[in-house]
Amino acid sequence: MYLTVPRLTDIVKKQFRYKMNAYTGIFSSLLIMQLIGIFFGVNSYSSYEASESLRITDATSTGDTPVVLTLVWAFITGILVTTLAYRNDAFSFVSNRLSHHLSSFLLVLLASVVGGITAVLAGSIGKFIVYAQNSTITIESPGLLDSPFSFFIGIATSILYTILFAGLGYTIGSFVQRSKLVIPLIVIVLIALPALNLSVGGVFFIEKTIAFFGTETSFLIFLMKVVITVVVLFALSVAVTNKTEVRK
Amino acid sequence: MTAIEFNNVTKSYQSGAHSVLNHMNFSIQENVLTGVIGRNGVGKSTLMKLIAGHIKVSSGEVRVFSENPFNSLKVSANTILVDDTMSFSDKLTLQQILKEADRFYANWDARLAKRLFDFFSFHPFAHHQHLSKGKKNTFNAIIGLAAHCPLTIFDEPTTGMDTVVRKDFYRALLKDYIAHPRTILLSSHHLEEIEDLLEDILLVRDGTIPFHGPITDLQDMYVKLVGKEEKVRAHVVERSSFGSQVNGSFIEVLVKNTFTMDEQARLNEEGITIVPVPANDAYVALTSGSKGGIDDVFNSATTD
Amino acid sequence: MKNAAGAKPIYIQIAEWIETEIIDGTLSADEKVYSQYQLAEQFNINPATAGKGLTLLLDKEIIYKRRGLGMFVASDGHEKLIAKRKEETLHGLIKDLLTEAKLLGVDDNQLVAMIEMERKKSGEGTS
Q1: Which candidate in B147, B149, B281, C24 could, as Cys together with B277 as Cys, close a disulfide (CB 3.0–4.6 Å)?
Q2: Rounded to whole angstroms, how far apart are CA atoms A147 and A150?
Q3: CATH architecture of B2-214
Q4: What's phi and psi for C65, nearest 5 deg?
Q5: Is residue A202 part of a domain?
Q6: A204-229 pLDDT, tens per residue?
Q7: Mutant choice from A15, A24, A87, A94 vs B, greatest count of B C-beta within 10 A
Q8: Chains C and B touch (3+ CB pairs under 8 A)
Q9: Chains with ≥3 Cβ pairs under 8 A against A?
Q10: How far is B217 from chain A (nearest CA, A)?
């Protein structure tokens, strides 16, 4: 029987397609998260009486809630695709560790793009609901009609943030797969150290990191920062799990 | 051509722990159907996972199609390991899983897969994780057969299958092997069930290989002496027996087959028959060592 | 107790089965013998094992090989087998018969008489 000589790109493509078919749950969970986001986003009402005959109702929808929930979803999804069950599924068919990583990462990337776009749209839906209920609206953030360029930059930024969080989840997931001891370490880094940091009063790593991305005003530099970070995170993930045993 | 090669392979799951495989050496030729035989927990599965590249050696070297299988895409594309760690997403139906398999394996035989699928009465929209253990293994075995991989590995494929399905599966395996010769490894701790299917046997015991070769050679290693008890006993004293059974004044004793022509003639004159043994008896003799059989446990208790 | 034939290696059983086919005339001289794959399929055994059975017959020159065409019954295959069975099987049976007869105190005349009687019973004048 002749031997097949597979190409990495072919196998990655097949694995990507397989994972797209097999893990539709990723997208349905996104939908649920964003519906929750819309629901909570529009529920910020404040009303006061301006005079005896006038009552002013102040309904706002920042559109942020769906975005925040999408980031949480991206982070969890990133972790999820690195878990044992997903790995065993992949290795039930043709795969090596690199093709598994590449195809999972492509899946996460695609999910992040969808998540990033729909997060902004969900925000808009929130605003629309507020508008429909109150018939007056003030738009403080760029919309598609008045400033399409800003609107698309907004979407791109949303996508990039989603990718960043997914990449972070993916890397943490990969480290945890390498050693369960990483879990308490992460807890310390995420909770204990910032708390400790506050009492010391200095600028801590996490704050710096947030500032590194959050205060960037140039979109292109922001894009580069995200791409480089994600590539580094991915390379780290591949490096720590390239000796992982599967289907034990 | 050599399909699989083990050079001094040792495998332990935790560093410093008792090793599952111990300095193993063997090679398997292309297109041979080999039975990997051994009792439970001797390292059969570990050996197979090493070959499929799922786990890595602690020391030594494994070669499959002259490549290190660990992280080799070539080995993965040309190998399928069917065992109970095969898993599929719960979102996919059985029919969809077969479709995915079709995409991954170059030699996939969709017609065979469909026919076996129908023969074993699977429902196309059923889900893998809802199947019973026997059904799950039957489904996995269908994938293993239809993949037509140059190296096909079945690790205890018939666990949970009922007798009829087991027989059908082994028959299907043989017919497909005849039609598409390829390197096949088949593990079982029931040698008697598969001995006729096999060309070679790879015997595993305590992480070592006490025997590897044609099943007929294994059979030839042992014989049974049948005759009057006192006469047989007289011949057996200088040989170690691997189990005996008394039927009235007759006794059957399993011994190593090292008789010369002269000795055979002498035994015949004394009314002792030399009887060939089934491969399974030889396997039991070879793997039980000189501890004797379960009967000896009770015999020594009464003589003490 | 398993009988001795049951434990016989399967390739020897295959060889004996083909021998019987040749002796009883199912396979005649220069006729094609079943391939190892046909045998494997029919008896549900590994083709290599079936091949070993054929090799056994090749070595005894009961069958011969034609390159690319398969195995065929040797022209003197039938005679060889008859002679061999006489030598091995019949002699073995006679030896057993004599041992048993001696044990039971049956003398040669009685034995011949018993054989004659069996022959008449089965309705055959000659063998």
Answers
A1: B281
A2: 6
A3: 3-Layer(aba) Sandwich (3.40)
A4: -110, 135
A5: no
A6: 666 777 778 888 888 899 999 999 99
A7: A94
A8: yes
A9: B
A10: 27
